[in-house]
Amino acid sequence: MSLLGLSAVGAYAWNSTVERNPAPQVSFEDPLPSTAATPETRPAPSSSSTVTPTSVAVGPTGTCLESAESAGAAREAPSERPPWLTLHFSPRVSTASLVLISGAASEAREAFGEAGAVGVHVYCDIEEYAAGLRISSEEASRRIGERRFASILLSDIRIYGPSYERQTTADRRRIIYHEYFHAVQHSLSRNRSARGDLERPVWLIEGSAKFFESSMTQRELEAFRRSEVRRWAALPELSTFIDGAGSDAEFGPEVYRLGSVASDYLVTKYGRDRLQHDFWAALATTDWRSAFLQVFGISVDEFYADFETYRTTLRP
Ligand SMILES: [Zn+2]
User: Fold this and answer.
1) Which of 92, 114, 120, 298 would staple 124 via disulfide (CB 3.0–4.6 Å)?
2) Are residues 167 and 51 in the same domain?
3) What is the 35 CA–ligand 1 centroid distance (Å)?
4) What's the 68 CA to ligand 1 centre distance in angstroms?
5) Are both 30 and 122 inside the same structural domain?
6) Domain containing 30: what range?
7) Of 158, 188, 218, which closes a domain?
8) 227 C-alpha to center of ligand 1: Å?
9) Residue 193 included in any domain
């Protein structure tokens, strides 16, 4: 389980509506929060479509549908959808998944703000998932085996359906919240948060996404603080979780863990809007250290020192 710091993914998938940007882009490969996923390698028919079901109840968790009849049923879903959201999915993706994804994306937009046009691609087949990420099938299988089956490239969220559909409903929603928050980061920063040629604070990019996915309600936020806001004494300082500008760093789950504690601290101390919106908007026109100083009123190095002091007050 790790974050791909600098990706070979540089091309764009079909039906993408995002603004083209010639700079290298980073595809975030986010680890999943619960039970292990099993790669599925059976080839399947597929296509893309832009249907957003809106009124079908979410049923029990299943995997990508297996019969053509079921696939047909899924594709007859109601076609009303928010204009900013486009779903691209294999015919084998269950209607329940599409309803859940559409609903969660709308909730995320309500909570985090607009991110422009957002696409969600759900694949039932490893070859297609690999093609969407512009990686080999072997690499796709490896990532799926490490529970990295959701990612975002600019404003296009890509999901490997068989693994996704095995998650709990709560986790499936959280995955969408998380990836949507990355879409907000990219949109506000004019994709500078995704530029592989710029130095980027991965602790802040991933930490804030984890924090906000965990704070949709006060109850979830309290649960997050109970379980996650700890000293994490074995983890290195935040300053080690930086990538970009030619480096090819990969970070494991620790970047989410410590980054979300730091994000919680920033929100508590400076207010939610600055981390949810202002920092990413400032990043559109300057480097991340300048944006940080501008928005939070202290330098990154001052914050690192402050955070280390705060960290010692947390329970182990
Ligand atoms: Zn992420």
Assistant:
1) 92
2) yes
3) 18
4) 33
5) yes
6) 3-188
7) 188
8) 19
9) no
Answer yes or no: do 154 and 220 share one domain: no
Residues found in the chain = 316
Question: Residues 253, 181: one domain?
Answer: no
The mean per-residue pLDDT over the stretch 212-233 comes to 97
User: Does position 218 have pLDDT exceeding 70, yes or no?
Assistant: yes
Residue 194 lies in a domain: no
Scan for tokens 């924090």, then name that residue: 211
Cα 29 to ligand 1 centre (Å): 6
pLDDT tens across 223-266, in order?
A: 999 999 999 999 999 999 998 766 656 788 899 999 999 999 99
pTM of the entire structure?
0.80
User: Using an 8 Å Cβ cutoff, are 26 and 273 in contact?
Assistant: no
Higher-confidence position of 43 and 221: 221
Query: Ligand 1 center to residue 303 CA distance, Å?
Result: 22
Contact 25, 59 (CB under 8 A): no
- pLDDT (0 to 100) of residue 250: 75
Q: What tens digit of pLDDT does each residue of 78-108 get?
A: 456 789 999 999 888 988 899 999 999 999 9
3-state secondary structure the chain: CCEECCCCCCCCCCCCCCCCCCCCECEEEECCCCCCCCCCCCCCCCCCCCCCCCCCCCCCCCCCCCCHHHHHHHHCCCCCCCCCEEEEECCCCCHHHHHHHHHHHHHHHHHHCCCCCEEEEEECCHHHHHHHHCCCHHHHHHHHHCCCCEEEECCEEEEEHHHHCCCCHHHHHHHHHHHHHHHHHHHHCCCHHHECCCCEEHHHHHHHHHHHHCCCCHHHHHHHHHHHCCCCCCCCCHHHCEECCCCCCEECCHHHHHHHHHHHHHHHHHCHHHHHHHHHHHHCCCCHHHHHHHHHCCCHHHHHHHHHHHHHCCCC
Tens-digit pLDDT profile for residues 149-163: 999 988 999 999 999
**How far does residue 78's CA lie from ligand 1's centre (Å)?**
30
